[in-house]
């Protein structure tokens, strides 16, 4: 499996908002993993509903608007796909069943707060602990967020408008390829090219015109390190450099301690 985005280059480690303008024709991404990922969502919604869904009443109206937008977007840009809405469940869940993205709805009161979410493919975080909390609290465990990203992110949310949407990329390296990775201990991993997995989140941010809520979508792509090295020249070198240069607190948060050295050896021995 390959990843359509490789957010690494010769510039090494960076922590940045990295927002780019989004054409809403590209809001949702569809690929040949759709059927498999939607089946996995169905299973998780059945077996782990309390892990993958969290809602507050404040997010109900915005979730209904989000569901309308998802259906409209599918009808307009992907008319070959089903946009039949499941009955009798929360709108954020019904919306999520139609697409490969995970969905978060944020509503402004004193501050922007997470008001509804369906996240089947979390990257080692716990949704239940974040519902109802602010952007700053959601990012509490992220090193350097408070110093470098909190202020621009809050002000970006306040300036977001329905006619100007954005997207960004986040990446990480994990020792497990599963899409569903709720909170689990981060640990330094050992192993070769096929024991490591590059995980990219394509995230979009848009403001809904009726309720003025902000929708944050997360589309997750995973590929083995071996596949990434084979498919992209210089990927291995850029990855080792980024991990090596990441601040110690970030290495700790990601479970990357000692990993750059292991990777160098894994890549050199093929
Ligand atoms: C412009 C907007 C945003 C920026 C710049 C941003 C930035 C980041 C960064 C740099 C990380 C560290 C991720 C890593 O590399 O592993 C992170 C983690 C995270 N972000 Fe955001 N983020 C944004 C919006 C949001 C929104 C709207 C949500 C809503 C749910 C969110 C939820 C999270 C969560 C849950 C984590 C993991 C935190 C943990 O480890 O507990 N982010 N974000």
Helix run count = 10
The CA-CA distance between the termini, in Å, is 19 Å
User: What is the number of strand segments?
Assistant: 7
Give the CA-based shape.
globular
Major sheet, described briefly? 7 strands, antiparallel
Taking all Cα atoms into account, the compactness measure Rg is 19 Å
Q: In what order do the strands lie side by side in the largest sheet?
A: 1-5-6-7-3-4-2
Low-confidence stretches: none
Account of the protein in words:
The chain is α+β, with helices and mostly antiparallel strands and 270 residues long. It has one domain (20-269). The protein has helices spanning 34-47, 49-52, 60-77, 91-97, 135-138, 145-159, 225-231, 235-245, 248-254, 259-269, and strands at 20-22, 53-55, 102-108, 112-118, 165-174, 197-207, 214-224. Helix 3 (60-77) runs parallel beside helix 4 (91-97) and helix 8 runs antiparallel to helix 10. The radius of gyration is 19 Å and the shape is globular. The model has no long low-confidence stretch (mean pLDDT 94).
What's this, in brief?
With 270 residues, the chain is α+β, with helices and mostly antiparallel strands. 36% of the residues lie in helices and 19% in strands.
